[in-house]
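Dear support,

Our group has been running a series of protein-ligand predictions, and this particular one with cobalt (II) ion is the one our PI (initials K.S.) wants archived with full inputs and outputs. We had some confusion internally about which version of the output was final, so please treat the block below as the authoritative record. The input we submitted was:
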Amino acid sequence: MDDWSPSSWASKPIKQDVVYEDAQGVQAALGKLQKLPPLVTTQEVNNLKKSLKNVALGKAFVLQGGDCAELFDYCNQDMIEAKVKLLLQMSLVLIWGANKPVIRIARIAGQFAKPRSSPMEVIDGVEMPSFRGDNINGFDATPESRKPDPSRLVSAYFHSAATLNYLRASLSSGLADLHSPLDWGLGHVITPSIREQYTRIVSRVKDALRFMQTVGIDTDRGVETVEIYTSHEGLLLEYEQSLTRLLRNPDLQPQPSSASTSTAPPKSYYATSSHFLWIGDRTRQLNGAHVEFFRGIANPIGIKIGPSMTPEELIQLLNIVNPTHEIGKVTLISRYGASKIAQYLPGHIAAVQSSGHVPVWQCDPMHGNTQSTPSGVKTRHFSDILSELKQALEIHRAAGSFLGGMHLELTGEAVTECVGGAGGLTEEGLSERYTTFCDPRLNEKQALELAFLVAGFYREIDEQLMDSDSN
Ligand code: PEP
Ligand code: CO
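Confirmed final output from the archive:
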């Protein structure tokens, strides 16, 4: 590719960059990262790309979710299991609802760096750098802890590796075995009505498996585990560059070289820090460093788009990062807000349709719906989240397009960060367990409820479910 290299981004204007005092420390950290093995393989990345092509064509659905800001401390057994189980439960509900395979991508094992609206903040009268994520600086409110620390770059790699190792090990040991889905541990916080609906779905799946066994179809393969892919915002380009490798691309055919009969194995540049990376809404400038980095990697990529994106700019951006119009290579993650989606999404869909690009359309109903309570607590209303999703589904349907998936900030913990949902969490209740280090997340109960409601939109069975609840 013409003048692209893993470091060509460095000559472009950059937003949200990190200025380290310790330049030597940065070089040492990046040198170390360059020698460490990839966290994901090319085969896995290519498999995800193929699955996302199916999503773009309306044959599958993608569920992406996890923390807004992952912390190194979240790298522990209970928290990883809780998140994985929640994504599995939600995906089972969505498979049933949308009647399509569901591709699962977690915001995990690397979702550390955060874009911030202001580089500095004042806490208790002291001005200090804002918290930028665990791979950059510390959350503790002291100027010392907030100083960007290059040793965190290497620490980010090892925390990602440990998280990914446990994720892979638990999946291969049967955590997602469909033969015993009730062992997926419905949390104690689930309301009786959601538990009953979920149990009903699970028993239908069990019936189907029993039927397949009775008629002699082998169910031992393919239902005992599932894939969970990893993702994060590709914000910290020094880190991403160090883990970007020129590797044999197993899906490209060797081309005979002109000079001899020998064949050169085709290679591509892969970002090996995770399967899927996305560009945030604040770093997607056409001529900027992030777009430059993203245009050269073979991974499937996401682009966040909000109200500030014009249809013309959207097409220019797609042409830059996907000049060959590869279907499903780009996931457009729309995040307008419930009150704005109707104004912007139709224009974006129309522009994309007339450009010939076929992206995955994913709705992020979180980032356009953040608001502050009168006492200054950042929250999101469950009803706004649901409304943006429902509108996305309807607008895509009306335009002859597909809503391919949803992108959520959620946690397997029983936190109190978003208001509403069947549990009826109010603004007054937010302080009970408000533990996010960045944006408010759906808790386990709210996330599963949302999956049921979205499944209901697909099946148009909301009313039946409500009827059976009241019986
Ligand atoms: C995020 O996904 O946490 C985020 C910062 O989103 P956006 O770029 O859409 O603001
Ligand atoms: Co966020």
